[in-house]
Automatic annotation (TrEMBL):
This is Starch-binding associating with outer membrane. InterPro entries: SusD-like_2, TPR-like_helical_dom_sf. Keywords: Signal. The keyword DNA repair does not apply. The keyword Signal applies. PROSITE patterns: PROKAR_LIPOPROTEIN. It comes from the Bacteria. Residues 1-22 form the signal peptide.
Length: 477
């Protein structure tokens, strides 16, 4: 799908340190040039585009989570690849998530109520839940129940990660009620072109994702979510054609990765994933990775994460991402059919369904290969190989490895799943600065300490120090 992006001036909620005169402050800080009552379809288009850009873009993907998960590496300016960050370096997900995501999606809910169109409301809830999920997976405890309500809560409290997950599950269940394929149509939908049944599948896929996120900490809640999905008869994403993704257009609305490589050349593919794909004889190697510019013996050369000897690796003798990912129209995948199949396989492996875990695992690998256009012959050869077989005695190892591969490019989601499943067993960056440890979260934005200090301090007192190495609630080692 291609689209013309219509620029929109997004409203922003300015956090203030004053507790009085909230209505007056809110009025004074209105942008006189912004649209007072935005057109609902334009607002939906803008919210999807801006949040997808933040999710797939530089700060939250290429310069952090893709490095942590060792899909990508850096060949120049490699402080991020050595885990060197200030508390301002990782704030984009937070600021864009709240100002361009939550704020605009909350407005979309209000406009939907005014217009009596519950489908806009349901879509907004699904997208808002996804944005909140990205943020809590990255930071841990976040403002949730009081966020985006500046007239009532200038300094919102941080909800525990557990409460955020449970709240999102309730929101997504509510969204299912709002979404009605026989209801009023929607416009501005650049993901599913207004097909409400696919939004219902997207909502259920997110519920399944969260149900597994909490499975190691509260399996009874996981069971309850699965029972709800069964009772509702809700369907899930069932083909690659139903993947939740934003397919970009040409410049100036191209994929953020394509946009970056138009002007920069400081990123490479990690040696970790190149070596893994080569050892597995995985046909995705030539899709995920570009051949080196100069002819080399191995054709595909990854760069070790956090390397210290800059002279050892040359730009022309190391591999960029594959042309699939460098294309202007490459999609930003939010949740794929392959991920849904891996999740169903894990649910079966945990004994929480009667489905065939091994069969679903094989189907998941096939779906990922098909997603990238791999031939049926190559798919059959790969899934029949010893290296790709399911290990029933350690489902986390099998699913963890293949899911890590299938989530290539989806840095934030791959980072969350690697922490949850603990596979593959990654070795910290060569020049890592965390005393031999891996990053386990993002740092809170530095401005939170001054603008929302009391609630920030309460959050870290409950969760743990505001460090990259603090383990989050869902991450049970």
């Amino acid at each position: 799908m291609k689209f013309k992006y219509i620029p929109i001036l997004f409203s922003s909620a300015l956090l203030l340190s004053f507790s009085s005169c909230k209505d007056e402050l809110a009025d004074l800080n209105k942008n006189p040039n912004a649209t007072e009552i935005p057109q609902i379809d334009y607002l939906l288009t803008g919210a999807i585009k801006s949040t997808s850009d933040a999710y797939w873009g530089v700060t939250n993907n290429m310069n952090s989570s893709l490095l942590f998960i060792q899909h990508w590496s850096k060949i120049q300016y490699n402080d991020p690849d050595r885990y060197i960050f200030t508390n301002n370096d990782l704030q984009d997900l937070w600021t864009s998530g709240y100002t361009k995501g939550v704020t605009n999606l909350n407005k979309l809910v209000l406009l939907a109520d005014e217009q009596g169109n519950t489908n806009y409301k349901g879509v907004a809830k699904v997208l808002r839940s996804w944005v909140y999920l990205l943020m809590t997976d990255a930071y841990g405890d976040i403002p949730y129940s009081q966020s985006g309500q500046i007239k009532d809560y200038i300094n919102p409290t941080y909800d525990s990660q557990k409460d955020v997950y449970y709240g999102l599950l309730a929101d997504l269940k509510s969204a299912q009620t709002d979404l009605n394929a026989a209801g009023k149509p929607i416009l501005g939908d650049i993901i599913y072109k207004g097909k409400i049944e696919l939004w219902k599948k997207f909502a259920n896929a997110l519920r399944l994702r969260i149900a597994l996120r909490i499975a190691d900490k509260d399996v009874e809640k996981t069971k309850a979510v699965l029972a709800e999905l069964t009772a509702e008869g809700g369907s899930l994403i069932s083909t690659n054609l139903e993947n939740a993704q934003l397919t970009y257009s040409t410049s100036p609305n191209q994929n953020p990765i394509s946009n970056l490589f138009d002007t920069r050349d400081d990123y490479r593919i990690s040696k970790t994933i190149v070596d893994t794909l080569r050892s597995l004889k995985d046909p995705r190697l030539s899709i995920f990775v570009s051949p080196t510019k100069d002819v080399t013996e191995q054709t595909y050369i990854g760069v070790p994460n956090g390397f210290l000897d800059a002279k050892k690796y040359e730009l022309s003798k190391t591999s960029k991402p594959g042309t699939y990912f460098l294309a202007p129209t490459a999609p930003a995948v939010i949740i794929s059919y392959a991920e849904v199949l891996f999740n169903r396989a894990e649910i079966a492996a945990r004994g929480l369904s009667t489905e065939d875990a091994a069969g679903l695992y094989k189907q998941a690998i096939e779906a990922s290969l098909q997603q990238y256009g791999v031939s049926a012959t190559a798919i059959n050869a790969y899934t029949a190989s010893a290296a790709a077989q399911y290990n029933a005695t350690n489902f986390k190892a099998s699913i963890g490895l293949q899911k890590w591969i299938a989530l290539f490019g989806q840095g934030l989601e791959a980072f969350a799943e690697w922490r949850r499943l603990d596979y593959p067993e990654l070795v910290p960056a060569i020049g890592g600065t965390l005393s031999g440890k891996m990053p386990l979260r993002f740092l809170y934005p530095g401005q939170e300490q001054s603008l929302n200090g009391a609630n920030y301090k309460s959050a870290i007192a409950r969760q743990g120090a505001d460090l990259l190495t603090t383990r989050l609630w869902f991450d049970l080692k």
